[in-house]
Design a protein that fits this description.
D-Amino Acid Oxidase, Chain A, domain 2; 391 residues; eight-stranded mixed beta sheet; binds flavin-adenine dinucleotide
Length: 391
């Protein structure tokens, strides 16, 4: 076939979630996903830390995470193919945000918003933190916020494959091709051009190109501040065990969590990182030596004697405007949709984003969860969504 009702560009977790939700809601439509690298070697979805939290500071992100955790829990039944249930190893030990006296007021403010929107997050004093996590250094702390349920981590590659396999079982066609151009006139994308010289006619087109979404948007003449930003993840082992260890976000910005028998950790990139460094997937080993390990050892004395095991780098799909997803119909277009700029939250937001984009295409509006706040118009109006809890 060279003509589809919907052509999705990018078959990562977002594109595959959109594809699955479209066919689940409207089995009669034809859907193609164009994915240039079916091995997903450099896709964010394959290089993610794949964690889910309720501890955001904006109601829309909290609502998306509630939708996300419900979906992940039901996933084995919902995404089963021919009776075979996918496993994504969801565990829910929570997130623990730590604050010094300087950060305590913001943590408490965020907590009030989270609780008002149904998130079960406890505020803990340093004494309560020390009692609950005896392996933690609490001397400089004023407060901690611990998710009591609905927060944890899972196998992100497993989630991507579960969406993809289910979508294919429902009739979605995946093509291993590179999209090189979008033919568009008068606010309509009419054809998606492939590197092999062929092109696909489309009723609707979806930009799900992850960190490369800015380039894809530019093919439709749109200028959005969407760029890849490198994030390094370091794997280490520790001979002591840390009972009940959550995903911990330290006051330094360094984070860590258990991963099987090991731990993984990371930190925001250095201020001076160049665009070339962000575009690369080379690990910044110095970041571990200079920033991550010292912070780990200060927060958890047992981490003074850790063993470095491995590391990898992936790309955050950054929206430089306000670090929140851009979901909605592209300005000036009647049939081109954006699901981009998740800025490090795309795994947990993929169920709600996929469902939302499918509803927009099929019904012209949101039915399950109102995501209109995340629409691209906010960039044109210069009205950023201020999310304080960025990792
Ligand atoms: C180190 C790291 C840690 C993270 N931790 C978390 C976390 O804890 N929790 C969380 O929720 N999120 C996390 N994220 C973010 C999350 O992984 C991403 O937001 C999410 O994977 C984005 O999915 P995507 O489908 O949009 O992008 P991708 O997975 O990158 O998929 C996009 C696909 O589009 C394809 N493509 C691009 N351009 C074209 C083209 N022209 N033609 C054809 N195909 C094209 C690419 O090949 C790619 O496979 C993390 C990311 C990284 C890198």
């Amino acid at each position: 076939m060279t003509s589809y009702d919907v052509v999705i560009i990018g078959g990562g977790v977002i594109g595959s979630s959109v594809a699955y939700h479209l066919k689940a809601l409207a089995p009669q439509i034809s859907v193609a996903v164009v994915e240039r690298d079916p091995s997903y070697k450099t896709a964010s979805s394959a290089l993610s830390a794949s964690s889910i939290r309720q501890q955001f500071s904006t109601p829309v992100n909290i609502a998306i995470s509630r939708f996300g955790i419900d979906f992940l829990r039901q996933l084995p039944e919902v995404l089963a193919v021919e009776g075979e249930q996918p496993a994504i190893g969801l565990v829910e030990p929570g997130y623990l945000y730590l604050a010094t006296p300087a950060g305590a007021a913001v943590l408490a403010e965020n907590n009030a918003i989270q609780r008002a929107h149904g998130a079960d997050i406890a505020l803990l004093t340093p004494d309560q933190l020390a009692a609950r996590f005896p392996w933690l250094a609490t001397g400089d702390l004023a407060l901690g916020a611990l998710g009591l349920r609905d927060e944890g981590w899972f196998d992100g590659y497993g989630l991507l494959q579960a969406f993809r396999n289910k979508a294919r079982s429902l009739g979605v066609v995946y093509m291993a091709q590179n999209v090189v151009a979008l033919e568009h006139t008068a606010g309509r994308v009419s054809r998606v051009r492939l590197e092999n010289g062929e092109s696909l006619a489309c009723g609707h087109a979806v930009n799900a190109a992850g960190p490369h979404a800015g380039k894809l948007a530019a093919m439709a003449g749109l200028d959005f501040p969407l760029l890849p930003e490198r994030r390094c993840v370091f794997v280490f082992s520790c001979k002591d065990s840390l009972p009940d260890c959550p995903l911990l976000i330290d006051t330094s910005g360094v984070w860590f969590r258990p991963e099987g028998a090991y731990f993984i950790a990371g930190a925001p990139p250095r201020d001076g990182d160049t665009p070339e460094q962000h575009a690369s997937l080379e690990v910044d080993y110095g970041l571990f030596e200079d920033v991550v390990w010292p912070a780990l050892a200060e927060r958890v004395p047992a981490f003074e004697a850790i063993k470095f095991v491995n590391a990898w780098a992936g790309h955050y799909d950054m929206n430089l405007f306000d670090h929140n997803a851009i979901i909605g119909r592209a300005p000036g277009f009647e049939n081109f949709y954006l699901a981009n700029g998740f800025s490090g939250h795309g795994m947990q937001q993929s169920p709600a984003a996929g469902r939302g984009v499918a509803e927009l295409i099929l019904f012209g509006g949101y039915h399950s969860l109102d995501l209109s706040e995340l629409g691209p118009e906010r960039l044109l109006r210069n009205q950023p969504i201020i999310e304080k809890n960025i990792i």
